């Protein structure tokens, strides 16, 4: 068939061509506007990503991130390939980097239960917070009773210097607790194994014990929830702190020179010098307490940093993030702030006003009263916990948008999982969280999904047991956001895409 010889067809084709030319070329601005809108719709409502970009990597892909910038430290995931906690022998095998998600989620559940029980207790009865302990003085120190601030341990660490001369220590940082502590020689009862040499106060010229009669010793109750004990021999103040996963530290309450960076040195920093430590700290030397009560790092360094810090948790364990102390002039313009609230009097936790959830550009119909039990943001909780009446609509809407993908069995507390094996690219609906003051924060795709492996990719949110439990914004959802805490200014800010 010589169709081109048909004059009608020729005319028709010309017409079509002309029409095409007219609409798509003459009206270029109209077309490109539509195109932009379509691509914007896709951009803002879905993450279109190669599946491989979501999978765990076995090598550390981070160039050192301005680690020597004043007042700012690298933030490293404990279990990832950038971690320096592993022994060199095991780090050569890629399998040593496989993260045990179910184990992490189990610990996470312990931390959340502990937060809930602490908050419900302090709400019921503020003055019953001080709990009996069975501390019996130095040497013969008994483990404090089963109380205290019972949190599991966070999963990101920083490096700070302690003592004179300074020793570098890996400390987990935790916005949900206050006391900073490290394991100390001679480990009167026991120490777990850590990567760096255990801090030895007898080798530091700037160490001193705190006496039982000092006001700081009595402030320990608010930082640890446990009344301090007193050494009979030297009247040295003895602290104890226990976490929800069973981990604990007990020892001498002391002061020491703390070095954050060469220009940021704190001469009399109060910390716990732990002689008896056990638990899931695995390789790290202790904990940096960034909570809100009087002995926290935030409060002790207020003179220099003005109770301000901001961090960015990396998108994956194979990159590093940062924590910066003090006000930061450069980036603050892009930070959106929401009011900081108190969840209960004297609590370490940072509260904020959670108002709504958006999935793929659609605001979920959730009544404001659903969030009336309050919300905290926590660096140590992994998975965000929502009131059941908010989680249900989120899950349903997410499942609807993901209906083209085959489902997979739940992973621990995560009930919405998919098997994405065989897909090159995937379209993941965006999720945004809204807070008081009209602040809406779009989460990174790593804040939407927890990717255990190709066959197990899960919505990274979970429901609280009870609508009366406090909601918790966990660290999975905070990834790649700068989270700026301005305690004096009573506000918390978010800036997207602040780190990789
Ligand atoms: C750190 O601060 C000191 C003194 O304020 C300054 O001289 C130095 O250049 C700063 N270093 C960096 C990396 O900003
Ligand atoms: C701190 O107190 C402990 C226990 O009483 C004691 O063994 C240690 O020598 C004291 N350290 C200093 C520097 O006073």
TrEMBL record:
A GO MF term: aspartic-type endopeptidase activity
TM segment ranges: 7-25
Renumbered residue ranges of the record's region Disordered: 119-143
GO BP annotation list: proteolysis
Keyword Disulfide bond included in the entry's annotation: yes
Keyword Transmembrane: yes
Highest rank taxon of the organism: Eukaryota
Active site residues of this protein: 174, 378
Keywords: Aspartyl protease, Disulfide bond, Hydrolase, Membrane, Protease, Signal, Transmembrane, Transmembrane helix
Pfam family, one: TAXi_N
Segments forming domain Peptidase A1: 156-495
Family: Belongs to the peptidase A1 family.
PANTHER family: ASPARTYL PROTEASE AED1 (PTHR13683:SF750), ASPARTYL PROTEASES (PTHR13683)
Protein's name according to its UniProt entry: Peptidase A1 domain-containing protein
Organism: Acacia crassicarpa (northern wattle)
């Amino acid at each position: 068939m010589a169709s081109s010889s048909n004059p009608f067809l020729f005319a028709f084709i010309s017409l079509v061509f002309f029409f095409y030319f007219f609409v798509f070329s003459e009206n270029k601005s109209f077309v490109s506007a539509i195109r932009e809108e379509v691509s914007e719709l896709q951009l803002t409502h879905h993450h279109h990503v190669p599946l491989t970009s979501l999978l765990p990597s076995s090598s550390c892909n981070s160039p050192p991130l301005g680690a020597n910038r004043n007042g700012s430290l690298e933030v490293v995931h404990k279990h990832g390939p950038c971690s320096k906690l592993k022994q060199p022998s095991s780090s050569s095998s890629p399998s040593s980097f496989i993260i045990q998600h179910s184990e992490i989620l189990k610990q996470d559940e312990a931390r959340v239960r502990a937060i809930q029980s602490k908050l419900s207790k302090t709400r019921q009865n503020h003055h019953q917070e001080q709990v009996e302990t069975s501390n019996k003085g130095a040497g013969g120190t008994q483990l404090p009773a089963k109380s205290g601030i019972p949190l599991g341990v966070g999963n990101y660490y920083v490096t700070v210097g302690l003592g004179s001369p300074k020793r570098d220590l890996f400390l987990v940082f935790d916005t949900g607790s206050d006391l900073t502590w490290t394991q100390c020689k001679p480990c009167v009862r026991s120490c777990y194994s850590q990567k760096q040499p255990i801090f030895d106060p007898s080798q530091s010229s700037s160490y001193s014990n705190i006496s039982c009669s000092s006001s700081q010793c009595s402030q320990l109750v608010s930082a640890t929830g446990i009344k301090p004990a007193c050494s009979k021999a030297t009247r040295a103040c003895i602290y104890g702190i226990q976490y929800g996963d069973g981990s604990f530290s007990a020892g001498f309450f002391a002061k020491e020179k703390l070095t954050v960076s060469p220009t940021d040195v704190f001469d009399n920093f109060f910390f716990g010098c732990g002689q008896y430590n056990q638990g899931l700290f695995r390789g790290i030397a202790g904990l940096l307490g960034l909570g809100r009560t009087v002995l926290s790092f935030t409060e002790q360094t207020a003179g220099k940093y003005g109770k301000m810090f901001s961090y960015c948790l990396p998108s994956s364990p194979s990159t590093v993030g940062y924590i910066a102390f003090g006000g930061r002039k450069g980036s603050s313009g892009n930070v959106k702030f929401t009011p900081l609230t108190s969840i209960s009097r004297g609590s370490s936790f940072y509260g904020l006003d959670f108002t709504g959830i958006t999935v793929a550009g659609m605001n979920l119909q959730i009544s404001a009263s659903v969030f009336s039990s309050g919300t905290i943001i926590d660096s140590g909780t992994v998975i965000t916990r929502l009131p059941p009446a908010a989680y249900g609509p989120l899950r349903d809407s997410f499942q609807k948008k993901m209906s083209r993908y085959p489902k997979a069995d739940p992973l621990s507390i995560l009930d919405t999982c998919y098997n994405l094996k065989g897909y090159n690219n995937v379209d993941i609906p965006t999720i945004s969280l809204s807070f008081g003051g009209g602040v809406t924060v779009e989460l990174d795709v790593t804040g939407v999904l927890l990717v255990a492996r190709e066959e197990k990719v899960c919505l990274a949110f979970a429901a609280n047991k009870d609508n009366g439990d406090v909601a918790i914004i966990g660290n999975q959802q905070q990834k790649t956001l700068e989270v700026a805490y301005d305690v004096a200014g009573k506000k918390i800010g978010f800036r997207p895409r602040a780190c990789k």
